[in-house]
Design a protein that fits this description.
With 265 residues, the chain is of the alpha/beta class. 29% of the residues lie in helices and 20% in strands. The chain has helices spanning 2-29, 34-37, 51-63, 123-135, 178-187, 202-205, 210-213, and strands at residues 89-97, 109-117, 144-145, 158-161, 167-173, 192-198, 222-227, 236-238, 246-248, 256-259. The strands form 2 sheets. A 6-stranded mixed β-sheet has the order 3-4-5-6-7-10. It has a 4-stranded mixed β-sheet with strand order 2-1-9-8, with helices on one face. The longest helix is centred in the N-terminal third of the chain and has 28 residues, at 2-29. The radius of gyration is 35 Å and the shape is elongated. The chain starts with a helix and ends in a 6-residue tail after the last strand.
Length: 265
């Protein structure tokens, strides 16, 4: 019995040894060749000054990779319509006017304004504010964009005040709720309120506001404006120099206007 047990033990150990050896051979049969795993590495560096190195450096300079951009390279912004809605952007705007309120020859006055597009704010909304600023510079020389005047609920897109904080002008660009329109008319009965929309005609939005506004007693003007035939950025000319200054080019004749008191159903 003892001899039989010893024989079976030897047989089992021999079988296990062969199994382990065979498993080790199979696992190494699928590994890369030794020279690929442990051999010397091939030097793939591009010699400095070579044409290939110059091409690589030029490619890096042109594409300007960004770790915050999803994709291989961050696309450059060549025109205003390229600015993504989800990103902030700073616009350097300028207007050139003479005594007649136009950009023709003569004694010209240049005004510059830095305007920031917030994340997820539409570019059209930002540019329409700039259009209001340009259109009413002659009427209200102290006109400002998004200046806090202390209203408990609203920040004006464009506003002009006197030295004693009397509100002369309040401009709204783009969509505005009827409740806000009525509130502005009631709170500032002597203020000239202007509502400017792009991409539509006066008939497309004025009937939604005029009936309710006509019920508000006021002495100040309430003006509607519309830009139906052009994209907003068609009124902006971007310089090609490094400063990237954008000139606002619009006149009152480019806009369709309607005074609230002239509205007819």
């Amino acid at each position: 019995i003892h001899r039989t047990t010893m024989t079976m033990t030897r047989t089992t150990l021999s079988f296990l040894f062969c199994l382990v050896l065979q498993t080790w051979q199979w696992s190494h049969a699928f590994l890369p060749a030794p020279q690929q795993r442990g051999g010397e590495r091939t030097n793939t560096a591009v010699p400095r000054g070579s044409s290939t190195a110059l091409q690589i450096q030029k490619s890096k300079n042109n594409n300007k990779s960004s770790v915050r951009w999803v994709g291989n390279f961050k696309p450059s912004i060549q025109k205003l319509s390229d600015i993504p809605k989800a990103k902030k952007h700073v616009l350097k705007l300028t207007t050139i006017t003479d005594g007649d309120g136009t950009a023709s020859s003569g004694s010209n006055t240049t005004t510059t304004k830095i305007l920031e597009k917030k994340r997820y704010e539409s570019l059209q909304h930002v540019l329409t504010k700039a259009l209001l600023w340009k259109l009413f510079q002659e009427d209200y020389p102290d006109i400002q964009i998004e200046m806090d005047i202390g209203d408990p609920d609203y920040l004006p897109d464009v506003v002009s005040t006197t030295t004693n904080n009397t509100i002369l002008f309040w401009g709204e660009s783009g969509r505005m709720s009827l409740a806000k329109a009525v509130a502005l008319a009631e709170r500032y009965p002597t203020t000239h309120v202007v509502h400017l929309r792009w991409g539509m005609r006066l008939d497309d939005y004025v009937p939604d506001y005029a009936p309710a506004l006509l019920k508000v007693p006021r002495t100040g003007r309430y003006t509607f404006g519309a830009l139906p035939n052009k994209e907003v950025w068609d009124f902006f000319h971007q310089s090609e120099d490094e400063d990237g200054v954008i000139t606002v080019q619009i006149e009152k004749g480019d806009v369709e206007w309607l005074e609230l008191e002239d509205y007819v159903k």
